[in-house]
Amino acid sequence: KRGGPGMMITCETGRERKCQKEGLDILNYYFRERIATDNEAKCGSAKSLSLEDEIKQLKGKDNCQPECFSVYDSRMRGMIMFLCTLPDCVIIPPFIRHDKKEEDEADECSNNNKEPATKKQKLENEELNNDQSLPDPNWDPIKTVRLIIKDLREGLATAPSSRFVTRMIPLQVSCTTKKEEIEYFAQELFSKYNNGTTATFAIRPKRRLCTSFKSNELITMIAKLAPKNWKVNLVDPKYTLIVEVCKTFCGMSMIEDMKNYGNFNLVEAREKGDESLENKS
After folding, report:
1. Do 200 and 231 meet the contact criterion of CB atoms below 8 Å apart?
2. pLDDT in tens, 59-94
3. Residue 126's pLDDT is what?
4. How far apart (Å, rounded) are the C-alpha atoms in residues 214 and 246?
5. Residue 233 CA, distance from chain mean position
6. Cross-sheet strand order for the sheet of 6-10
7. Which residues face 249 on adjacent strands?
8. What CA–CA distance (Å, rounded) separates 97 from 116?
9. Nearest C-alpha neighbor of 24 from the set 86, 71, 62, 85
10. Which residues sit opposite 200 in a β-bridge?
């Protein structure tokens, strides 16, 4: 289901199945590490495990962890899309579309000084009026990628390997390629990171098999939503809004100090880690 955060993983064409398994192993490993670090274990208070228990977990016999990620079928070669399935993983409030019939019914109820007719409309109104009431998300894709790249650059041996995965691109939100949805989530991301001070930004779109609009049209559409106190800087921006479009799927993230992520290239990060280990030895 689109709306929540996810992770776009790329690989060489023809290695999608191996990449999918490897990518899921990596995501699950870092999700468990985050829970252990923040003392938010789903199975109770954190405790040290015996070697036997750790082996059971790695083999999948310990089923206390919920299913955290699902594969979104983008039908794209050389790419796997994972979406977070945890109940509290929403970073931006969902986009709510009202069709004309619902709007007419709502207007009629308003004119008659009555409550909205349906439970769905009540829930939608509550969501619209309580945008700031979202709990902290259980999973942060940007934090996950930052840890992965850091571990690879340092040559951490305990982390899962990335033999087939070439890039892991974090997506804070996901939606369709409809203009109103893209504008809504872009506006929300701008608002989330705007603290009132002057900042620089850039928009980096990437289209794959999408004919709905061109990259320049996408940039123009989103740039007009930027805060007035933000200035464009294509060389070294403070924030970079990445927009990944695949057919009818769109994912977005606001990345702070994009240059520190090495274009999310795990291959290069692993090579730097290997060089670092060689220099130490």
Report:
1. yes
2. 554 444 557 899 998 888 999 999 998 887 888 888
3. 44
4. 13
5. 24
6. 69-72, 79-84, 6-10, 167-171
7. 176, 246
8. 16
9. 71
10. 231
